[in-house]
Design goal:
Elements (H helix, E strand, L loop, with lengths): L14 E5 L14 E10 L13 E10 L4 H10 L2 H5 L3 H5 L4 E12 L2 E11 L3 E11 L4 E2 L2 H4 L5 H25 L4 H11 L12 E3 L3 E5 L16 E5 H4 L15
Parallel strand pairs: 3-4
Antiparallel strand pairs: 1-2, 2-3, 4-5, 5-6, 6-7, 8-9, 9-10
């Protein structure tokens, strides 16, 4: 994940801000928020993007959150979802660098006191790149949902092993597809070597996305750009019925199991 950029000299000539219209979801019993997207178009100084006219502008779309009766909880949620807290760069810092092309977000779930959001940024330096950052938020207190709060502790090893089975199956499929496509022997060797240390462990349970039908565990293989084509997608979905033995009934996700 990209967390810093080379400093650059830039002048903000003008920032155009517009609110995209969206139909807010009704907040029932304070179990969800109202989210409206705000769009900011950055216009960079010509000298900063000399030789790179396509980098003249960048678009940032971020969520404006409201709708909770508890002001303290609302402020915590707003703080978590502010631009600076996502990829460690503020809008002003994005203005002072030419890497960014687009910044946006997707709301995956927003009800039953759970707000699940994925942010994406894309840009280019030496090469094009895209990064994602995910937040699953407890709307009862405005905190990020922790694995220890929603999964049964003494079953964590078994849960991690379940997810690891899907990871290993995906890695095997990558090798099979490379073999079937008659890839270069060197590519096959590199892909196999890169896979050797990969394993989904208890420590990886902290990254998960909450949905209406189940939970998707997220895994970043950390491959360098040169071999990202061989990287696993790292998204492993399990229905709530599959996860029933592992979810705490008195935790926030207990509401999704019988």
């Amino acid at each position: 994940m990209r967390t810093s950029w080379a400093p650059g000299l830039v002048l903000l000539l003008i920032t155009s801000v517009s609110y995209a219209q969206s139909k807010p979801s009704p907040a029932t019993a304070d179990d969800r928020v109202i989210i409206r997207p705000r769009t900011v178009t950055l216009i960079r100084r010509a000298s900063l993007v000399k030789g790179f006219p396509e980098k003249r502008t960048a678009k940032v779309i971020y969520p404006v959150v409201s709708g909770l009766k508890n002001v303290q909880v609302l402020r915590r949620v707003q703080a978590l979802l502010q631009v600076k807290n996502v990829f460690d760069s503020s809008i002003d810092e994005y203005r002072q660098d030419r890497w960014l092309a687009e910044f946006g977000y997707k709301v995956n779930y927003n009800r039953n006191y759970v707000l699940d959001v994925t942010f994406t940024q894309s840009g280019s330096g030496a090469y094009p790149d895209t990064h994602t950052k995910h937040f699953a938020i407890n709307l009862k207190d405005g905190s990020v949902i922790k694995a220890a709060e929603v999964f049964i502790g003494d079953k964590s090893e078994a849960l991690a092993a379940l997810v690891n089975n899907k990871l290993q199956a995906e890695l095997k499929k990558i090798v099979q597809e490379l073999t079937a496509s008659r890839s270069e022997p060197e590519d096959l060797r590199i892909a196999k070597e890169a896979q050797e240390p990969l394993k989904f462990t208890v420590e990886n349970l902290v990254e998960f996305s909450v949905g209406a039908k189940g939970i998707t565990f997220l895994y970043d293989a950390g491959y360098p750009h040169a071999i990202q084509a061989f990287a696993p997608v790292g998204e492993y979905f399990f229905s709530y019925s599959e996860l029933k033995p592992f979810i705490k009934r008195d935790g926030l996700l207990g509401q999704f199991i019988d």
